[in-house]
Structure formats: C-alpha cells, structure tokens
Amino acid sequence: METSDIEGDLSSILYTEEQIHAKIAEVARLVERDYAGRDPLLVGVLKGAVMVMADFARELRIPATMDWMAVSSYGSGTKSSGVVRILKDLDSDLHGRDVIIVEDIIDSGLTLSWLLGNLRGRGAASVEIFALLRKPEAATVEVDVKYAGFEIPNEFVVGYGLDFDERYRNLRAIGILAPHVYS
Ligand code: 5GP
Ligand code: MG
Ligand code: MG
C-alpha cells in the first residue's frame, strides 16, 4: 500500500505536507527569536509528535537538544480520562533548562496541563508548549500554549504522526478519517 492509497481513507484533507512545513517554519522563526542565546530542550511526546519534532528540530537554526516522553492519557475509548501515566520518562535532568514541549495535538487539554505541571515541578527554568494542532471547541481545561499551529474543528484527525489504532501515522498530510474506516 502506498501512502497515496491510504489517503483514500480520509473524508477530507485539512493540511497538505507543504502547508504543515510552512507552519512549522513560521513557528521555528518565533522560537529562534525567543530563545536566542539559550539552548532549549525539546521534549517530544511519543508517538504522535515524532513527525512534528523531526521537522521542527531540523528547521530550527539555534542549538537545541531533544528528549522524549511517552504518556498514556486515554482510559477506554477515545476520550482523555485526565489520569495520566508515564510509560517512558525523560533521560534528561530538567534543572535550569528551558523546556519546549512539542506536541501533535491538544484536544481536551488534560494531557498537556498535567505534563506542564509535572515538568515545571522538576526545576526547569521555563516550560512552554508548541502544539501543531488545537481543537478549541474540545477544551476541558485551558492550557497556555505559547506556540500554536493550526486551529481545527472538533473532528478526529489522522496523519503526520497522528494515528487511528496505530495506523495513518505515516501519512504526509493531516486529514479527517472517513466514517467507513471505523464503522
Ligand atoms: P487531550 O488530553 O488533549 O484530550 O489529548 C491528548 C492526546 O490524545 C493527543 O496527544 C493525541 O495523542 C490524542 N488525540 C486527541 N485528539 C486526537 C485526534 O483528533 N486524532 C488523533 N489521532 N489523536 C488525538
Ligand atoms: Mg500527542
Ligand atoms: Mg493515538
């Protein structure tokens, strides 16, 4: 199966690869300006943020390091439970570091608000968030996202790292999954 074939499982494409890269470049320019002379630690949240991290880190023209966390926020079903478990923790000591959390999407906001509190409690000098996508209508808690990419409708999206049952992460575009796929 080629990735162009799995695009047939989308009812619509929200953002093409080109649009995603343009947005990431825009955010990288802001971060370069805000973090000039510092050495931010980019914290990617596995697995959804893998693509954003890879493109964002390479787009940045300032020194930066990368680390990864894996958390589980979903109970049963497709809604965040608010109960977050760390499946894989960071390797880095956060003391005095300027941390930028790199995330694929904010839905309810529960995962990120928990993560923000958790990382701030580890002695970081600062903790900010870059989320590529955000669903404003789905917010259960308000999260202060310094760098926000696209605001999207309250629909389940896949591609560019985002999965449905572990599939579609390798799509280059981001789109809305067609109902025939999950019904
Ligand atoms: P939140 O805690 O903000 O509700 O959601 C956290 C996680 O749920 C996201 O990091 C992402 O992994 C997953 N998620 C939320 N909305 C979507 C969506 O529309 N599509 C996919 N594939 N995952 C989502
Ligand atoms: Mg995520
Ligand atoms: Mg997922």
Automatic annotation (TrEMBL):
The EC number(s) this enzyme carries: 2.4.2.8
CDD domains in the record: PRTases_typeI
Subcellular location: Cytoplasm
Pathway the protein takes part in: Purine metabolism; IMP biosynthesis via salvage pathway; IMP from hypoxanthine: step 1/1; Purine metabolism; GMP biosynthesis via salvage pathway; GMP from guanine: step 1/1
UniProt enzyme class: transferase
Any Pfam family hit: Pribosyltran
Keywords, alphabetical: Cytoplasm, Glycosyltransferase, Magnesium, Metal-binding, Nucleotide-binding, Purine salvage, Transferase
Molecular function terms, GO-annotated: glycosyltransferase activity
Keyword rRNA-binding set for record: no
NCBIfam families (UniProt xref): HGPRTase (TIGR01203)
UniProt record similarity statement: Belongs to the purine/pyrimidine phosphoribosyltransferase family.
Name of protein: Hypoxanthine phosphoribosyltransferase
Organism in which the protein naturally occurs: Frondihabitans sucicola
